[in-house]
Specification:
- The complex is a heterodimer of chains A (204) and B (295).
- With 204 residues, chain A is of the alpha+beta class.
- Chain A has a domain at 42-163: Protein Transport Mog1p, Chain A (3-Layer(aba) Sandwich).
- Chain A is built from 6 helices and 7 strands, in the order αβββαββββαααα.
- Chain A has a 7-stranded antiparallel beta sheet with strand order 1-2-3-7-6-5-4.
- The termini of chain A are far apart.
- Chain B has one domain.
- Chain B has helices at residues 5-10, 17-26, 39-47, 52-67, 73-100, 107-112, 117-139, 146-159, 161-176, 180-190, 193-198, 200-205, 213-239, 243-254, 261-271, 274-294.
- Chain B is mainly α and 295 residues long.
- In chain B, 75% of the residues lie in helices and 0% in strands.
- The chains are: A alpha+beta (204), B mainly alpha (295).
Chain lengths: 204, 295
């Protein structure tokens, strides 16, 4: 094969790829999504940052980490081989509806909004972004036992993760919405940072 | 659109050979096995509440998570499917070889399928390798230290005790005998790259195994099996598992078996989907545990 032919073939291949990419680009939204709710991974706090914030187990209990993903970390609290509770921290950036449910919450724990979901789950929203959850397993836990576990988390440490990591998104907010009222901040983030994805989020 | 993890759970069989084989093995495992095949019931169990609106929210979240390619739940299932398809194919050939061995014209089929111990060992190592890869796809790398990681692995295996007992009995004790774990490393040492390539599952997994080339993959599989065998040895000792006990347990649900143990292993490989069946259940539980925490 001579040189010109090889170059010709390479050019043909490159044009083919380019044309293929351009033709397929409009269909990209139809392809299955790579990330949850199509939020870019870089905007979600990595689960490894949450691990050190879990409560220390009491004597006779073990804390076994079970899952760690972007924006999520979960552990099981066990006693003598039996699971007592699931403990989890998640970044609500990929689940706006999880954060929205706290808007009606009246209860407070260490100043953060607290909510009960069904008979066995207690949820806390820290720094308007991170959801901390305790779910009783097996025999179940009473509500105040779950609240004690929630208080065992390093909540100030968790709140400290928010501004440092969330600066890119917060920087793009309208000036007025950057302040504390959480209800005003929610639509600000949707319209400002993820306008292109918001339609997809609604669809999801 | 491909079915989500919870759709797959809902479609699992409630009866049939796979379920009977697993029920048989479950009699050897304390705590038994309930064959969860209803996603909403699983959600209600993890959530500790069967409020329909909460269950619906959890399910919607779980479906979203299992469709997201980055989250790995779907990828773990395709690993299990790949191993399962290849197990059925090789099991079918072995059964065929057994059946046709007596017929003069068809003897050649017996000679093209070497169900040798070495291939069986390689097959087991691929299953263990797929299990390790699927674990990291489903659970990430939990905890901050190696100790946390091994604790998470042991916890996952404890969750799926019947699954592990089935893997140990069907793929180690029955085909390789009661000294399977002691023989495993020696057998794997004799496996060549060419023999590994004969296994259909290897073709599907090779792209996902770390390292390049057959030798690197063999090294990874041997290391994986070595760490798994340590855990499995303890499990076997604790439950007192042997090939004979496995056969007895299976006879309790499947009916009497008069052939050799290898024959039973080939039959189970060819006609049951135990690996994918329990795999879907294990992944679904982890997925639901996450979705419950995220709604």
């Amino acid at each position: 094969m001579n040189r010109a032919l090889r170059w010709g073939l390479a050019a043909l291949l490159a044009t083919g790829l380019l044309v293929g990419a351009v033709v397929l680009a409009p269909f990209s939204s139809w392809l299955p999504g790579g990330t949850v709710a199509d939020v870019p991974l870089a905007q979600v706090v990595n689960g490894s940052a949450f691990n050190r914030l879990f409560p220390a187990p009491e004597a006779g209990q073990q804390l076994v980490f079970t899952q760690e993903k972007r924006g999520f970390s979960e552990a099981r609290l066990k006693q003598g081989g039996e699971a007592l509770a699931l403990l989890a921290i998640s970044d609500t950036r990929t689940a706006p509806e999880a954060r929205a449910k706290f808007e009606g919450s009246r209860e407070r724990l260490q100043g953060w909004p607290l909510l009960e979901q069904g008979a066995q789950a207690s949820a806390l929203l820290v720094a308007d972004r991170f959801q901390v959850k305790v779910i009783g397993q097996g025999q179940g836990l009473a509500a105040d036992q779950r609240h004690v576990l929630l208080e065992g988390f390093d909540l100030p440490g968790l709140a400290a993760l928010a501004p440092a990591r969330g600066r890119t998104a917060a920087g793009r907010l309208p000036a007025g919405a950057a302040g504390p009222p959480p209800v005003a901040a929610a639509p600000g983030i949707r319209n400002g940072a993820y306008s292109s994805e918001s339609a997809l989020q609604e669809a999801a | 659109m491909s079915p989500t993890v919870l759709d797959r759970l809902d479609r699992l069989p409630r009866r049939g050979l796979t379920v009977l084989a697993l029920r048989g093995i479950a009699t050897l495992v304390p705590g038994g096995w309930s064959n969860p095949t209803n996603a909403d019931a699983l959600i209600a169990e993890v959530l500790g509440d069967d409020d329909p609106s909460l269950v619906r929210q959890v399910r919607a979240r779980a479906d979203l998570l299992s469709r997201a390619r980055h989250e790995g739940y779907g990828r773990a299932l395709s690993l299990y499917d790949a191993v399962n398809r290849s197990q059925r194919a090789s099991g079918g050939l072995r059964v065929l070889a057994n059946v046709t061995a007596g017929l003069p014209l068809l003897k050649r089929i017996g000679s093209i399928t070497p169900p040798s111990d070495r291939l069986q060992a390689a097959d087991l190592s691929l299953k263990v390798g797929a299990e390790l890869l699927a674990f990291t796809q489903v659970n990430g790398l939990p905890g901050d230290s190696f100790g946390d990681f091994t604790a998470a692995l042991a916890d996952y295996a404890g969750d799926a005790r019947v699954r592990m007992a089935a893997l140990i009995c069907f793929d180690a004790l029955l085909p390789l005998g009661n000294q399977a774990l002691e023989r495993l490393d020696g057998l794997l040492g004799q496996v060549s790259g060419g023999e590994l390539r004969q296994l259909p599952a290897y073709g599907r997994l090779s792209g996902l195994l770390p390292g390049r080339g057959d030798q690197a993959h063999l090294g990874f599989l041997r290391r994986g099996v070595e760490s798994w065998a340590g855990w499995a040895g303890g499990f076997i000792g604790q439950l007192g598992l042997t090939g004979q006990r496995a056969v007895q347990a299976l006879e309790g649900t499947l009916g009497p078996w008069q052939g050799r143990m290898e024959g039973l292993a080939a039959f189970l490989d060819a006609f049951t989907d135990t690996y994918a069946h329990t795999g879907v259940q294990a992944v679904a539980r982890r997925l639901v545990e996450r979705a419950v925490a995220e709604i």
